[in-house]
Amino acid sequence: MKKRQLSRAQRIVTIIGLGFAFDAFGQWLMTIGARANFGWVAYAPLSNQSAPSLAGGLHPWVRFVIWMILIALWTGAAVLLLSERSTSHGEALTHEI
């Protein structure tokens, strides 16, 4: 049975979708251990401070390592998906110069 190959455009769309999925997963990972500030947190509408954000969570170096791993996975997947494949059974393509 012949395996169906994705076209180059389909592979690019797959890589973009995978990037969005890794981004959503990374954003979710960044909220682990964080808690929202509920109740009075000294926010006044006329002050220059923005609305309260999440407190706690992972250390900054852990966040950095997580993002670097996700970027490496996405880059590796992109290289695998966009690499040129030979059309015959395992033979390398030869280019005439």
Describe this structure in words.
This protein has 2 helices and 2 strands; from the N terminus they run H-E-E-H. It is mainly α and 97 residues long. The mean pLDDT is 79. Helix content is 47%, strand content 6%. The protein has a two-stranded antiparallel sheet with strand order 1-2.
Average pLDDT: 79
Output the structural class: mainly alpha
Number of strands: 2
Rg estimate, integer Å = 23 Å
Q: Beta fraction of the residues?
A: 5-15%
Oligomer: single chain
Outline the biggest β-sheet. Answer: 2 strands, antiparallel
**Basic shape:** elongated
The neighbouring-strand order within the major sheet is 1-2
Instruction: Give helix and strand order, one letter per element, not per position.
Output: HEEH
Helical stretch count? Answer: 2
Distance, first to last CA? 35 Å
Low-confidence stretches: none
Helix content: 40-55%
